[in-house]
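[User] At your convenience, examine this fold.
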Amino acid sequence: MTGARKLGIIAGSGDLPRRLAEACVAQGRGYFIIAVRTHCDEAEIEGLDHAWVDLGSIGTTLKHLKSESCQDVVMAGPIQRPSWSTIKPDLRAAKLLPKLMKAKGDDALLSIIVAEFEKEGFGVVGIDDVLSGLKPSAGALGDHQPDEQQRVDIKRGVEVARALGALDVGQAVVVQQGFVLGVEAAEGTDALLARCGALRREGAGGVLVKIAKPEQERRTDLPTIGVNTVTGAADAGLAGIAVEAGGSLIVDRDAVVEAANARGLFIVGIDPDTI
């Protein structure tokens, strides 16, 4: 917790920006939302203090944050990485563009943006610094446990995810009976699960494994699951989900565990170093 410092919320899709704003109100902390146009859902920020910006408007974003006297910044909600040709950068972004275009993965790109915020004197915080209880501990979170084959699949998933993460590619892998059904790249976890449903083998269900990249900027873009992840995993015929204990986020944990219990899936927090 960073006290009463006013929080600037860089808002992508989903309900996390609203949850963060509501948490600030409950804590007596000021906030202001920077809603990224075509990514942030207008309905999610209705009635909240906000301004709209285009994705390439770094200078405009900084100007809003300063005019609203924000001291800390948090990034909340997915922002689909677009083609560079579709971005119209403002002057500040244009100066950064050569460096941004060299960033091969999302983590490298986010690290550059974080450095810009810090250069301007803002503290960059993680979602879990504002919303408590999002990071899972080790062990099963619900009624179900992985069996021996699924534990083997989790270990295989960790190995593959770490190799992907070292290249700053993705955070999620689906493994069934030792076979890698799919890895996450630009499409995101929901699309990965939808794709893997058609690739599912006969027999025991597989697992979704999500862990942070080895050099992850842990204040931004930690592996995250929610109710939609559970629904997607169940629809894909998987047996469960393994997430990094202390290094991932579970949004609306009670609802996630309830959904997993209802669909017969396990959710387990793992330590990638000891799995």
